[in-house]
Write a structure and sequence with these properties.
Elements lengths: L2 H37 L5 H28 L9 H25 L15 H35 L10
Helix pairs in contact: 1-2, 1-4, 2-3, 3-4
Keywords: Membrane, Transmembrane, Transmembrane helix
Organism: Suillus subaureus
Protein name: MARVEL domain-containing protein
Length: 166
């Protein structure tokens, strides 16, 4: 099988996984944000603000990943091009890397159910951190696959404005 066949099968699969993990992340971060807003029981402003940032990042990812799943099937358009995918995925990757790193830093990287915690919702914060890293890894994989496809398209003569699929 050539790379185009892998891209036709893999793109919807990877983007579906990204959307699925982002929906879970959105649910956790929205619940935590509502609790922090209503009860003011966050440990620090960093914990509260970084949870809100992950809420935004999840919503961003759901919207743009859904759009790019549709754009993938419109290969003749600018929005279905390699450069468009690279730009969108790179921005999404920056958001997820910043969000996952910042929530890990806010939680001191050692959130554990077995140790006494000063955090109000340690289980939910642990899940928030875990899904942030999983989604970041999926976006990294998608970005690398699109970059490889862009290099192949450039060598083929289509340039980076060419389609992801041939």
């Amino acid at each position: 099988m050539d790379f185009g066949t892998h891209m036709r099968m893999g793109h919807p699969l990877v983007f579906s996984l990204i959307i699925f993990c982002s929906i879970i992340e959105l649910s956790i971060s929205a619940w935590l944000t509502s609790r922090f807003t209503a009860r003011h029981n966050y440990f620090s402003l960093a914990e509260r603000d970084r949870t809100c940032f992950l809420l935004f990042t999840s919503a961003w990812t759901i919207v743009f990943s859904s759009l790019y799943m549709c754009f993938f099937y419109l290969p003749g358009t600018v929005l279905g091009s390699v450069i468009s995918h690279i730009f969108s995925l790179f921005l999404t990757w920056i958001f997820w890397t910043a969000g996952a790193t910042s929530i890990t830093t806010a939680l001191s990287g050692e959130l554990n159910r077995n140790t006494p915690s000063v955090f109000a919702y340690p289980v939910q914060l642990n899940a928030l951190q875990g899904f942030a890293w999983v989604t970041e890894a999926l976006v990294t994989f998608a970005l690398l696959a699109v970059l490889i496809r862009g290099i192949i398209a450039a060598r083929r003569g289509d340039g980076i404005r060419g389609s992801l699929i041939t």
